[in-house]
Write a structure and sequence with these properties.
Radius of gyration: 18 Å
Order of helices and strands: HHHHH
Shape: elongated
CATH architecture: Up-down Bundle
Helix content: over 70%
Organism: Kineococcus mangrovi
Number of helices: 5
Number of strands: 0
Structural class: mainly alpha
Largest sheet: none
Number of domains: 1
Protein name: Golgi phosphoprotein 3 GPP34
Strand content: under 5%
């Protein structure tokens, strides 16, 4: 069997990122609702708006690059995210205080993964290969900077949640 070509690999790569973006969007919406009426909730709601826009941008890049969407992966990722949300973290009736730390860590990892994906596309734009002419380096730089800002925001929230939950 022949090794898959670059376009096939890009299809798999962007499909995985799109699946992660779908799950992350749902996770962030759930976290924003859980913290509604608080400063954290407002920040998470604003981040959710940005993450929805980021996912739209990823979909745009998928179209621009002529990559086939793998919707079954997006649905599977959202289903797994929903199952993970059921984990009680030591409580069965009420939300565990630990949930905030775990959610923020998961969101942080997701945004860092998204940033890596944007950087990979940026690398393709610079590499001069077949995809380079279809990628906009300036637009990708904006997405990279936004992901870095989102990472810093989530890290600040995560650290505050750690202090609230574990003391300190």
């Amino acid at each position: 069997m022949d090794a898959p070509g670059p376009h096939t690999l890009l299809t798999v790569y962007l499909g995985d990122h799109l699946a992660g973006a779908s799950a992350g969007r749902a996770r962030l919406a759930r976290a924003a609702r859980a913290h509604a009426g608080t400063g954290t909730g407002r920040v998470l709601a604003d981040l959710h708006t940005e993450v929805v826009a980021d996912r739209r941008e990823l979909l745009r890049w998928v179209r621009v690059l002529g990559v086939r969407r793998r919707r079954h992966l997006e649905l599977a990722a959202r289903a797994v995210e929903a199952l993970v949300a059921l984990k009680p973290n030591g409580r069965f009736v009420r939300r565990s205080p630990l949930r905030a730390v775990v959610e923020l860590e998961g969101l942080l990892l997701g945004v860092e993964g998204k940033a890596a994906g944007w950087r990979s596309l940026r690398e393709l734009a610079d590499a001069g290969g077949p995809a380079a002419s279809r990628l906009d380096p300036v637009a990708l730089d904006v997405l990279i900077e936004r992901a870095q800002r989102q990472t810093a925001t989530l890290e600040r929230l995560r650290r505050a949640a750690v202090r609230d939950v574990f003391g300190g």
